[in-house]
Amino acid sequence: MSGGRRDEARAGARTQAVRVKTAKGRKISSTLWLRRQLNDPYVIEAQRQGYRSRAAFKLIQLDDKLRFLKPGMKVADLGAAPGGWTQVAVKRVHAETPGRGRVVGIDLIPWEPVPGAVCLERDFMDPLAPGLLKDALDGTADAVLSDMAANTTGHAGADHLRIMALVEAAYQFAQEVLTPGGVFVAKVFQGGAEHGLLAAMKLRFQSVRHIKPAASRKESSELYLVATGFR
Ligand SMILES: C[S@@+](CC[C@H](N)C(=O)[O-])C[C@H]1O[C@@H](n2cnc3c(N)ncnc32)[C@H](O)[C@@H]1O
Q1: Cα 69 from chain centre
Q2: In ligand 1, which atom is closest to the CA atom of 109?
């Protein structure tokens, strides 16, 4: 294991718990959130290693397992803010080295550009977004990664539909840009992708699997669809 990867793996290490007192004016839910953040080893390790989000470790763990990010690749990162996955992708495809790799990220909220990546601020569901991404990628990508998550409304049925619409749009884009052998990674929830989508994906990829990386919180129904070997 290289020094960097060993460092990343240390994120699971135990740290001393930080206690948070309930402050006047702060809701109990906010105090609980703050306590969880301050005691979360991935939050602590993300700060130590300069990653913008604890989510960076989810991509690190998925890629450490399946090794789909390779030097020289072109990568699209959908739902990229604040930029943790983009940072990991830049590092692993060596996009900062001239002539090697390219990473293009997009998010609908404003985000600080990640050095070495093209960072777009736009709704991916905007009909112009796929074209902008394709221009920045010079037409093709070797990997399409989607960590997009719609804000939940509390209405399970409507939330599921919105989430599935994002996954399906990401998959549609992946089919348009992926090179042979390409990779598609997407965040899905609960029962994973719908049977129809999964069946369609199995026809286009050599391997399609669901993985829950250790950095994905146990109480969250989030998991990742990882499809490799696009044909
Ligand atoms: C879990 S966060 C991504 C974290 C990111 N992977 C990282 O490592 O920092 C999900 C992101 O998806 C974005 N998102 C949701 N719907 C989107 C859409 N339609 N177009 C672009 N981004 C979207 C949200 O704004 C949010 O920043």
Answers
A1: 13
A2: 25
Q: How many residues does the chain have?
A: 231
State if residue 83 touches ligand 1 by the CB under 6 angstroms criterion. Answer: yes
Chain segment 35-91, per-residue pLDDT in tens: 777 789 999 999 999 999 999 999 999 999 999 999 999 999 999 999 999 999 999
Q: Indicate which atom in ligand 1 lies nearest the CA of residue 129.
A: 20
132 lines ligand 1 (CB under 6 A): no
Residue 211: what residue type? I
Q: Is the CB of 95 under 6 A from ligand 1?
A: no
Q: Using CA atoms, how far apart are residues 204 and 162, in angstroms rounded to an integer?
A: 24
Residue type (1 letter), 38: L
Q: Is 187 a catalytic residue?
A: yes
Cis peptide before 213 (omega within 30 of 0): no
100-153 confidence digits (pLDDT tens): 899 999 999 999 999 999 999 999 999 999 999 999 999 999 999 999 998 878
Domains of the chain listed by start with CATH number: 3-49 (no CATH), 56-230 (3.40.50.150)
Separation CA 138–CA 98 (nearest Å)? 16
216 lines ligand 1 (CB under 6 A): no
Query: What is the distance in A from the centroid of ligand 1 to the CA of 170?
Result: 12
> pLDDT tens for residues 203-224?
999 999 999 999 999 988 899 9
| Spacing, Cα 76 to ligand 1 middle (Å) | 13
